[in-house]
């Protein structure tokens, strides 16, 4: 059974304990009553980017590509509007991982940018554990990473690897 923890920047939807009950029989007696990461589990976040987000990102990274600020430049490059920087959108992946697994070390990310994201687009970011391997007292986790808009248009696809200090999933409140 897959666990799915979904949250937005405005509110958290915590799964009731009974959603985990059928998977608990597969856990050791020392496992917590809920929220232990297993292969197949999914974490999601929904986010809408603003012009202010682009400005702050550019200040922080010193990436002032006019493509992200000038409509004429964006149109000359083939975009209908000014796109949100792809790396800003992709930053949702480590945010999801680190917020649910404090102390996580993000060691690898591959990204395929499939479609542009524009200010106001509702973006859903999904991280799914595909492989978990224990190394001493930590866990090497391979993850499938995807962002989409409008419920179906994939904007970023890829994979990541993180070293987690624990498989206990911390429920977060980003409101």
Automatic annotation (TrEMBL):
It comes from the Eukaryota. GO terms for cellular component: mitochondrion. GO terms for biological process: fatty acid biosynthetic process. InterPro entries: HotDog_dom_sf (IPR029069), MaoC-like_dom (IPR002539), UPF0336/Enoyl-CoA_hydratase (IPR050965). Residues 44-138 form the MaoC-like domain. It holds the Pfam family MaoC_dehydratas. GO terms for molecular function: (3R)-hydroxyacyl-[acyl-carrier-protein] dehydratase activity. CDD domains: R_hydratase. PANTHER family: HYDROXYACYL-THIOESTER DEHYDRATASE TYPE 2, MITOCHONDRIAL, HYDROXYACYL-THIOESTER DEHYDRATASE TYPE 2, MITOCHONDRIAL-RELATED. This is MaoC-like domain-containing protein.
């Amino acid at each position: 059974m897959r666990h799915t923890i979904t949250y937005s920047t405005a509110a958290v939807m915590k799964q009731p304990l009974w959603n985990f009950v059928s998977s608990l029989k597969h856990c050791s007696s020392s496992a917590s009553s809920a929220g232990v990461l297993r292969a197949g589990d999914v974490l999601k976040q929904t986010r809408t980017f603003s012009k202010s987000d682009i400005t702050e990102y550019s200040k922080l990274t010193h990436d002032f590509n006019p493509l992200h600020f000038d409509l004429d430049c964006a149109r000359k490059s083939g975009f209908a509007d000014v796109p949100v920087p792809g790396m800003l959108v992709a930053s949702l992946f480590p945010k999801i991982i680190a917020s649910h697994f404090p102390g996580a070390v993000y060691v690898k990310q591959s990204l395929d940018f499939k479609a542009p994201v524009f200010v106001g687009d509702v973006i859903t970011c999904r991280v799914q554990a595909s492989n978990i391997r224990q190394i001493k007292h930590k866990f090497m986790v391979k993850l499938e990473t995807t962002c989409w808009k409008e419920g179906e248009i994939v904007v970023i696809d890829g994979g990541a690897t993180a070293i987690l200090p624990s498989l206990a999933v911390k429920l977060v409140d980003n409101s």
